[in-house]
Amino acid sequence: MVLININQLTQPPMEQVLNHTDQHYDPEASKLGMWLFIFTELLLFGGLFLIYSVYRYLNPEAFHLAAHELDTFIGAFNTIILLISSMTIAMSTSALQQKNKKLTIILIVTTFILALVFLVNKYFEWGIKFEHGIFPGSEHLINDFSQGEILFFGLYFVMTGLHALHIIAGMIIMIIALVKVQKEITNADRPVLLENAGLYWHLVDLIWIFLFPLFYLIH
Amino acid sequence: MQTAIHIPNDVSYLDYNGKYKGIFSWIFSTDHKRIALLYMFSMMVLFLVGATLGLAMKLELIAPGRTIMGPQSYNAMFTVHGVIMIFMIVIPGLAAVFGNFFLPIMIGAKDVAFPRVNLLSWYFYLTGALLVIASVLFGNGTPDTGWTFYAPYSFKTGTNLLPAIFGAFVLGFSSILTGLNFIVTIHRMRAPGMTWLKMPLFPWSLYATAWIQLLATPVIGITLVLVSLERIFGIGVFDPALGGDPILYQHLFWIYSHPAVYVMILPAMGVISEIIPTFSQKHIFGYRAIVVSSLAIAFVGYFVWGHHMFTSGMSGTAQYTFSLLTFLVAIPSAIKVFNWIATMHNGSLNMEAPFLWALSFIFVFMIGGLSGLVLGALATNVYVHDTQFVVAHFHFIVFGGVGFSFFGAIHYWFPKMFGRMYDKAWAKIGWIFFTIGFLTLYSPMFYLGMLGMPRRYYDYLPEFHAANILSTLGSWVMAFGIVIIIINLFRSAKNGPIAEMNPWHGKTLEWTVASPPPVENFENIPVYGENDGPYQY
């Protein structure tokens, strides 16, 4: 076995020796970690998609009827918003690589605002449902709807609700990325934090791309 | 590989406090070795709680009828015992303690890939544990559903179930983060020249385990979320009154919880694969076969969950398929046993405590595994389903597997972790008491199950009395063994003789660093050459 000096292997050498491994910077590792985390998120929603398909198979007519209660226009509008936000966050990464700090920040803020618009739409959409007495456990839902429709709305609220939580998590990550870009801790040489924020945001977008047709479009 | 010795850094991880003082230098430390000890001490406390509950249940069963508690207390006890032992001890156990401590050292790294995430996962662990304990201490009644939280009872029971479910969810998060960390560490931080097939077998087993943690845990996460929402809002997915299907809950629960069995047993097998070559002073027999069988167990383990539900209502086709797949998973497990035995063949055996633990692991694992085939076969499963036979089987596998390998691992690596040697004679005495107690405690349950004594009841028919007395006696002997082991280790950690750097003449990298290891593990990162490997005796 040969021994070589650690300083020849890792960057940056001085910090490594002084401050334990907190200073260890390996963008490949961070990316890999993010992808693995995305797998877990996909499986989290995977459980829900599984439940959805089982109950859709068992109650095709009820799911067909219940889907008419949803507003396809708001759903489509929100889909467009999320698609644009995915584009802006991707553009912010490119802007960072081109060392255009100002544009990077503008694009992150734009993404944040689009996320907020999505949530506001979602709020009104849910609000209308609540006004009509359609929410889990409501008397109207239990007395006047079939079991399949109850399941449809149960899943609708759980899945879009969990997705909304992910939107909020994504917004928090964007704030962190914004601060780090502002302080130039995340910069053209160390872009991985923003790239990972982008990956996460694409995941949130992707899940919605599946939720939208499952709840709004399939009739 | 030559036995090149590094010049150790001066400061061991036990002495280096960083920028904090006292307890903060532990609970804010991102050093993988300190985090490992944080896990170890938290687990020890929880294990003693869980074990006490187990002893109380065995005491209740010493005679038919009410002995020390009524049915509701008994239900609460097996629930909390199960939740603590499964979610807090055996699932994270070996990976969080010995994986954290030795994975980076064994692959020649200075730490895991994400040290702060590593600390965060301990905090998640602690939060989850406290939430479960809160469900016991506060609210109206300790959870009484069993650790499986089966629907629909889990949202019908009036007991304080929500904190327990949420606690299990948070513990899952901790498990996911540890798994994620280990996968990235193994991919990115192996020493130069350490190719995949030169990696020691304990890291290999952690790698297979980490993938299960990563890909199976989210499924139970979402399932537990749904049960909570069912309880709070009544969304209906598992509630037959609203059109939901409780059996779907069972499927989702076991899609995680069966692979979780392999999260428990794979690192245990990894530990045994380290101990046996060292104490036989021989290269491990069939290195590649052990690696492949670890991955095969992890893979096939995903597709056998249905064998927990043979009597729940499934089509005949599903039953045959799950039964067949269950038999398949026995093959890679048996391959490992053959390899361990073959490694010992013609070796120069060193009968120290770790090796004794490894040998007894193989013994109890074989009993547990073979009784698992009885349960995997459809005809016999229906006969012994939900009896004491099942309890005996999974205690042989889960407690036998993880317990024996955990004690084996602590006796194997103790001199490295604390720089001191334990009293070897007392270590063997502890092992004898534990092993005899273990076998006396659980073997009668096979017999009772065959006779038809159901599980999860505080009471039983008079004809089961004799075997139950024997079992309870066994629980006392085993508890005595645990006390001896813990006292011996605690005393030795403080006052034991200073240990050599490599007391067992092991060949893996952890034996090339000082005892206890320096803060940075390696001053010079080891480099593997063409002909180097982990077990070259």
Q: What is the 3D form of chain B?
A: globular
Largest interface: pair, residues per side: A-B, 48 and 57 residues
How would you sum up the major sheet of chain B? none
Give the count of helical stretches of chain A. Answer: 8
On the 0 to 100 scale, the average pLDDT of chain A is 89
Structural class, from secondary structure content of chain A? mainly alpha
Task: Describe this structure as you would to a colleague.
The complex is a heterodimer of chains A (219) and B (537). Chain A has eight helices and one strand. Chain A is an all-alpha fold. Chain A has a single domain (30-64, 98-217), classed as Four Helix Bundle (Hemerythrin (Met), subunit A), CATH 1.20.120. Chain A is elongated. Chain B has 537 residues and is an all-alpha fold. Chain B has a single domain, classed as Cytochrome C Oxidase, Chain A (Up-down Bundle). The longest helix of chain B has 35 residues, at 246-280. Chain B is globular. Chain B starts with 23 loop residues before the first helix and ends in a 10-residue tail after the last strand. Chains A and B meet through strand 1, helix 2 and helix 7 of A and helix 5, helix 7, helix 8 and strand 1 of B.
